[in-house]
Amino acid sequence: MQILLILLMMHPTLQHKHTAKEHDMPESIFQQVSLDILRLHQHTARSLLAVPHDEAAEIHDTVFAMIEGRYYMLVPQSAALCDKRTGILLIETDDAQARISWVASARTIQHKSNIYRRALAALQRRVQQTKQSLNQAAEACLLELTPQQGRLTLRNNRDFALSPHDLMKALYPASYDMKKYA
Predict the structure, then answer these.
(1) Which site among 40, 77, 120, 177 is 20 to 30 Å from 34 CA-CA?
(2) Which residues pair with 50 in a beta bridge?
């Protein structure tokens, strides 16, 4: 949790958009860690979302679903959370052997949109897998988080920078391979 707060204070806004190749992980390293990224997203024990609030951070323990490289989280409606443009997402396994943290741009998804229905269905499936509860109160807010800059930390304190491109390549390898040959 302390790491999350430090990252939040370091990145209150995102000024620079990175190109797909600008900060990609070297292929030799990617091959070593891509399965860890995939497993972490499939078997997440905990995910925390932090957003800046006044001089501190507001932190929410929540379930996420992923659709096309974006994270979706249903969180309690609050001005501090649902009106923010930047957040920090921390995902870790039960044994804390693997962790990903993302600085992400955030936006609220409207109830009547198609992506809202898709994300809510994906969240319900995820909740059934993890046996957690999903807060579907009418005053809940669905956030879409688009990863900008990330860190992957593995057992023995091995730490790697992640780009959104690395994430997509790890989670959707067949799609990535198809693009190479197109």
Answers:
(1) 120
(2) 59, 88
Judged by DSSP in three states, 141 sits in: strand
pTM: 0.77
* Distance (Å, whole) CA 95 – CA 97: 5
As a whole number of angstroms, the distance between CA 80 and CA 100 comes to: 24
Q: Which helix (H) or strand (E) holds 70?
A: strand 70-76
Structure confidence by residue, pLDDT tens digits, 7-62: 343 343 333 444 444 567 888 888 888 888 888 888 776 788 887 777 777 788 88
* C-alpha dist (Å) from residue 138 to 66, 109, 111: 22, 14, 10
